[in-house]
């Protein structure tokens, strides 16, 4: 018969595995449900057209999202006219977009909410008051902006603030002007919407349209029309997908780690039990089946709870992702029944995989183990553990050295490899390191009178398996928290230094509340303002980031501004397209027109754009282009007029705040990963110490019989816990330090600038404090309960 205390001890040891499996499956279920959902749906401003025709896609790169190249003006008009002649088509409307914004409203970078009035026929909303615009000075806008028909309104455009009279309001987003005004403000046509007559079959019209369009576009119907959602939403979904994928993979990995450590510790505690089973005739195979059976129970129960929780929490998780900026507004999660079923099966498999090593160790327990009374670990290190631990540590050290000499892409992988290798290696070697490190740590306490320091030292050095099992999750928590947060902070600091060093200017004029600077804002300072646009080069019309620069550009950068029909390209673009100095580059502009430009220079890839064009050429082909920043190289200007959406800041401040939205998402991504890692490993800390404390009831009784008071027993346990967390934190810092210094050295060599390691101390201290609080609670609270039970007995 198994005693109540033994049963309590056994299930306490498996509680951490149950929670880890449940959380892991919940995260995997939520992540998969969100990843497999359809997205935000068809944009409202186009959803009123049952059939949409999109321009053909150009070449792109992973993680880079740009609009499809526009049709050439003549081809766009030809397609619109032919589609309008189809039976059942009431109107074929060419959709254009341009930058428009009222002062005080907010818009994202790259967002263009201005459209021709004819495109209003494609929307699911209509006029709520007033009438359509009839002249160039009239506009229809969203009623939620607070302007009514007949009121004057200032609208920010790429040229500058422009006065309009509100002719009407819509019950949906957007700024609508006459088609003629839109043609002057907007670039090329990328979509044509078909408004059908009542009763017309959209599928039949789409089939006919495909024969007309051929390879010059894509005909979309139904849910497929969401391909015309803003590219900002697509980029946000891609970022969210990376976050969710990392969360799911990390959850699976840490779940295996927790289950493995929990079962390994449980087997170490139950050596006498397994020895007794072997004595009465149990075979190694039967012992393995016993451990696997326990893992199966934990896996089935934990995975079941996790899959149910994942389905229930998926909508709430979606809301959190939208608030954090990892999913676009309007995104809705769809429930698919097979996702929780697959996650449940994965959870069971992970639990069984985690128990594999423990089952083999249990099967090797000898019958004589049943005769042991002492809790001293006589042989905690096997030959295989020595070899594996040293090999993993060596691999981590090699990756650390490689980090200092690798490129930017390989640097991150090598840093992670270094952290994983050193973490695994030191975890395997902990049984031989715990004794000496504990002696060094408790040496100052040994000088103090009393038996507490002696008990702490002897308990930790004699029960090295227990000590190692408690140190390991703290080591992993601190190591990854330090590495992830500090690597991001070091990289961002280096990027800020690089940007500030690359520019020679007195100050920077930056947008505030607007996606860029208009010509009117740029005209307020003496200097240069790269006009940001996108051009498409090569036969596949690959998207290239381009800037229109003025002759003063060389004062801020070491690049001579192109003039006339010339272009400057970076080395990577030149190599990809076969362009060389003196050759001709063929580019498609934002309005769909094609230009043949002579390459006058090939420059370094470290510049913020891939292609440099004359500013007047960009403005001629992209009437809605905005400047990302204006660098002032002249004297201090007069105070800026209000309503331009701009302010002047030092160059160093702009360098630190540039790509602030991307940095914000990166930090949120980083903190999510750190929180998941720390949360899981703290579960491992708590479960290990709960099981260890539950197994020390006999030790508590001996101490009480020896004259120790309950306070002294609890003080001894608290001191042990502090030593465990201190050793784990110190080893975690040792693991992260080589990779972090390697990253700093690699960035220093690559950029040729001073780069120092930047440790995110607030987060590191927070993680260590969390480990200490969790470990102390998991040790002292159950011990206090056990001592009270002894007193009543």
From TrEMBL:
InterPro entries: ABC3_permease_C (IPR003838), Macrolide_Exporter_MacB (IPR050250). Residues 247-365, 673-788 form the ABC3 transporter permease C-terminal domain. GO terms for molecular function: transmembrane transporter activity. Pfam families: FtsX (PF02687). GO terms for cellular component: plasma membrane. It is found in: Cell membrane. The chain crosses the membrane at residues 12-36, 243-268, 295-317, 337-358, 386-406, 412-434, 467-488, 665-692, 713-741, 761-783. The keyword Transmembrane helix applies. Coiled coil: none annotated. Signal peptide: none annotated. It is a multi-pass membrane protein. Keywords: Cell membrane, Membrane, Transmembrane, Transmembrane helix. Belongs to the ABC-4 integral membrane protein family. This is Putative ABC transport system permease protein. It comes from Streptomyces violarus. The lineage of its organism: Bacteria, Bacillati, Actinomycetota, Actinomycetes, Kitasatosporales.
